[in-house]
Here is the input.
Amino acid sequence: MAHTSARIRILILHDEPLLHAGLAALCAAAPDMEVVPPAPHRVGTRPACDVVVADLAQALDAAGGAARVVAVTGALRERDIRGAFEAGVLGYLQPSCAVDELLQAVRLAHRGARHLGPEAAARLADSFARDHLTPREEAVLALVVEGLSNKSIAQRLDIALGTVKAHLKGAFAKLGVRGRTEAVVVAERRGLLHEGATAPADAPARAA
Here is the structure.
């Protein structure tokens, strides 16, 4: 199909074949859009496009380039959503979103505007209503995830046992939980723990 300047050129990059095909078909059917094929001649080369519609990993990879980016993903952890927008992704939708919402997100992204699906928006709004874990609380909770006892955590982080208990108490209050198991479930679901959380800069870890 010949390129028409009024149309939004869209590149689909999704790792699920059925979803990839569905996204391509929906965008191609819109009168103001056209789907450009991937560039087969060179690995990693992308054709000229205005908007990339991709899974989360490829959306993060494409963010910051010349094209605007919309992520279509089932990932609803706070850290994933925040990370996507911080990287430059403009749209964040679930695969179950309505067709009209997908097309609107693409059009908004093309204009440089953001669009957040209702599920992701609710998750992000909830996060703003809560107190965030401190780096030390994250570090202690990450070691709880590893299965360490309070005593072992104190040894690993080179802090007093009472300090470990205080950090756990603070983390439990912020997460709205009563115990270690529930705290781990909530923290992992919200994506609050990240690689490196067990060794904050102000206190190098040492072996237990």
